[in-house]
Design brief:
33% of the residues lie in helices and 21% in strands. With 201 residues, it is of the alpha/beta class. Strands 1-3-4-2-5-6-7 form a seven-stranded mixed sheet, sandwiched between helices. It is globular and about 45 Å long. The structure holds guanosine-5'-triphosphate (GTP) and magnesium ion. The site of magnesium ion (MG) has 5 residues, from helix 1.
Amino acid sequence: MLKKIEFVKSVFDKKDLPKDNLPEIVLCGRSNVGKSSFINLVFNRKNLAKTSSTPGKTRSINYYKVEDSFFIVDLPGTGYAKVSKEERARWNKIIRDYFSTVKKIKMAFHFIDSRHNPTDLDILLNDYLKNLLIPYIIILSKSDKLKQSELSNTRKEVIEFFPELVYGKNLLFFSAIKGTGKTEILHKLSDEMKINETFLL
Ligand code: GTP
Ligand code: MG
């Protein structure tokens, strides 16, 4: 099993964004939706990305390099109520700087907790990605917390918010506990990055 992923660096300021000209897949969405847990599950590395039940764990832009060919970028979560105004402003700036500076964003994975409807911030983020013409997939996270009947309702509701979504194509359920969605994600990554999927599986 060959699956190389390495932590590269934490970036707090746009001048420190990596100079390597590698394509990037960016993970974004609200705090606590499971972005860091996603990295650990998809790449079979239990504690590579730090996770926490306290929202706001990831405070920097964290870069991981996969198979020496692309970056997975874990953005700090936005929109958690319990952070100070200053802290929130700092996060917003980091995220704006990221999207306005990095030119090789191949795709964004926008995480939304499958138990909740998209928030205003999710709508903003979606608009943002559309305006920048960044291809995106919406990942409905923590799907292990829902019953089968709830899953199909959630799916319908999210499509009402974002009618361009097609389940299985740019809308997926994901569970870092059960592994739901992992195979589909690995397919997407290998398709996008044109690397042999056996590297990833
Ligand atoms: P920030 O770094 O604050 O932006 O959060 P994050 O989006 O990186 O979330 P993180 O991966 O740290 O997970 C937040 C909490 O949700 C942790 O307690 C995780 O154990 C839990 N969690 C993550 N993914 C899942 C999942 O698929 N199912 C369940 N049940 N819990 C999950
Ligand atoms: Mg995190």
